[in-house]
Amino acid sequence: MSDERYQQRQQRVKEKVDARVAQAQDERGIIIVFTGNGKGKTTAAFGTATRAVGHGKKVGVVQFIKGTWPNGERNLLEPHGVEFQVMATGFTWDTQNRESDTAACREVWQHAKRMLADSSLDMVLLDELTYMVAYDYLPLEEVVQALNERPHQQTVIITGR
């Protein structure tokens, strides 16, 4: 293929790509789920949140299960205006008290719902949320409803196995 023919072909490709990009300008949030066995889910989520903060976005974090002990992510992000709400009971398999765990989950879930309804938040990270649904601390329908009713531009990251 000659250089001229190649250039013409690539120009047509560019025109098609440019047209698709022009059509895809709807600014909307997405839902990202990091799940699976092994490590890295929370790290990936916090990496994405840190990048958002670095671009001037407003982020909120709700941590289910993790407990209130200090962690590097919180130490890094809180001074940049990231709100953290943490389920204070720690690992539910350590407490072994379903009533207490459910109450703690419901309490922090109220903060999560507030964040999910807050149009000033560009991103909400729901760390270990999948456990709360899997352990029946939260009804799936309620979680789905809150996600569906969130502001159009808000991105949500969910982690857990």
UniProtKB/TrEMBL annotation:
Catalysed reaction equations from the record: 2 cob(II)alamin + reduced [electron-transfer flavoprotein] + 2 ATP = 2 adenosylcob(III)alamin + 2 triphosphate + oxidized [electron-transfer flavoprotein] + 3 H(+); 2 cob(II)yrinate a,c diamide + reduced [electron-transfer flavoprotein] + 2 ATP = 2 adenosylcob(III)yrinate a,c-diamide + 2 triphosphate + oxidized [electron-transfer flavoprotein] + 3 H(+)
Alphabetical keyword list: Porphyrin biosynthesis, Transferase
Keyword Cytoplasm: no
Keyword Nucleotide-binding carried by entry: no
Matches recorded under Pfam families: Co_AT_N (PF12557), CobA_CobO_BtuR (PF02572)
Domain Cob(I)alamin adenosyltransferase N-terminal positions: 3-21
Gene3D superfamilies the UniProt entry points to: P-loop containing nucleotide triphosphate hydrolases (3.40.50.300)
Transmembrane residue ranges: none
EC number, UniProt record: 2.5.1.17
GO molecular function list: ATP binding; corrinoid adenosyltransferase activity
Protein task: Required for both de novo synthesis of the corrin ring for the assimilation of exogenous corrinoids. Participates in the adenosylation of a variety of incomplete and complete corrinoids.
Identification of the protein by name: corrinoid adenosyltransferase
Organism: Escherichia coli
Gene: cobO
